[in-house]
Amino acid sequence: MRNLWIFINKYNAFLFFIIFFTIGIALTLQNNAYQKSVSLNSTNEIVGGIYQRLNVFKRYLNLGQVNDSLALENAKLKTQLISLSNLDSSKTVVVRDTVNQQQFTLFSARVIKNSITLRNNVITINKGFKDGVERDMAVISPGKGVIGFVENVSANLATIRTLLHKNTLISINIKKNNAFGSLVWGDDNFDYQTAYVKEIPNHIKVNVGDTIITSGSGGFPKGIEIGKVIKTGITGDSFLSLKIKLFNNFSTLQYVYLIKDRLAKEQKTLETKRPDEQ
Amino acid sequence: MNSKTILITIFRWIALLFLQIFLLRNTSYYNLSTPFVYPLFLLVLPFGIPNILLFVFAFFTGLTVDAFYDTLGVHTSACVALALVRVIFISVSVNKDALDNPEPSLGNMGLKWFLLYALLCLFFHHLVVFFLEAFKFSEFGYTLTRALLSVILSLLAILLLEFTFHNKKSS
């Protein structure tokens, strides 16, 4: 017993190291798992609160750019509105109840913590479950481009796992021929303006400059423009990889749109249903 | 440890974490190299600190950074690893009985010693940070490059801070 005590006293640093390092690794593993229980991240009241306060000052720096993008979007919407109001209204119109039929509703949120420099980037927004934010909601940026998925939700805040994260995979189409693929970031590319499209079948012809759009699964409405192909012909084993330039700029992100999918729950239960339960 | 040391330590903790979280979190060189200066807090803790206290400080400093970085566990593990490297390096290179310096800072220990000390500690810290963050070996080369380039940037930033605030023998 005495010898043990002497041993522990002599090598106490190793002992402490093993104890604390094990806790640290356990936390990492737990954070990597899909189900998380510890909420020591930026949806935490204190952490989120500090970010929110600081963001009040930082917002002003990019105000001009945000205004420009909003004005651009307004102009686009106004054009659409004009073309809609000029329809010939003397014809009989079948009235459709769009309030109940509409599958996707958008609402905006402000980014209070942005991140682009890490391997796995998570941003924090100022809306939580009090405002109707739910886990796995799809998030897009104003103008063009996709952002990612909602990860953690607290009362007033939520974190979004952006495209710039190892666990994010977005299903996409090539606009001109509707070929399927998936959009990922990483694999020796850590520039926040480019990403890779993988799993395009080899026989599909893709040219530089082709547009990539969302495929309509995974919570995104179909047809949101994501980016342009800048490099083709990167062949994997039996699939084609494309390098694409993203339309949205993650570094100046100020506002995002969250997409509420009315049919999300229904689709999920349907798709995860096992054959023997049907 | 007198009350002055405790006050300075608390102030240093707040200042370094503030600098790290609100300024350097958004800093990177082509997404290849990101500086971490907050390990300086653990590097310059006094020589006389008990091991258990050092590890507790390391653990909670890492946990705080993780909360703000949304990377639970990564910096916590890295800081604990740094604490171990610190203990080993000091026990090997410094004769504790003949020591009259309160803390292992640049001004007290000289450039050569501090450079090696900081380099070793930061190297292991960054290695743990980047590999736990990537969490897979398929990006091994890239992750290693990121870690090594970040060590250089962090070391420069830490030396800069040390030269600014510690460049005289403290009484």
Describe the structure.
The complex is a heterodimer of chains A (278) and B (171). Chain A has 278 residues and is α+β, with helices and mostly antiparallel strands. Chain A is built from six helices and twelve strands. In chain A, the strands form two sheets. Chain A has a six-stranded antiparallel barrel. Chain A is globular and about 90 Å long. The termini of chain A are far apart. The mean pLDDT of chain A is 81. With 171 residues, chain B is mainly alpha-helical. In chain B, 69% of the residues lie in helices and 0% in strands. Chain B is built from seven helices and no strands. In chain B, helix 1 runs parallel beside helix 3. The longest helix of chain B is centred in the C-terminal third of the chain and has 26 residues. The interface between A and B is large, with 44 and 47 residues.
Secondary-structure map with pairings?
The complex is a heterodimer of chains A (278) and B (171).
Chain A: H1 2-10, H2 12-32, H3 45-58, H4 63-85, H5 98-101, E1 104-113, E2 122-125, E3 138-140, E4 146-153, E5 158-162, E6 170-174, E7 180-184, E8 194-201, E9 211-214, E10 225-235, E11 239-246, E12 255-261, H6 264-272
Antiparallel strand pairs in A: 1-2, 1-12, 2-5, 3-4, 3-12, 4-5, 6-7, 6-9, 7-8, 8-11, 9-10, 10-11
Chain B: H1 3-22, H2 39-43, H3 51-69, H4 74-93, H5 106-109, H6 111-134, H7 140-165
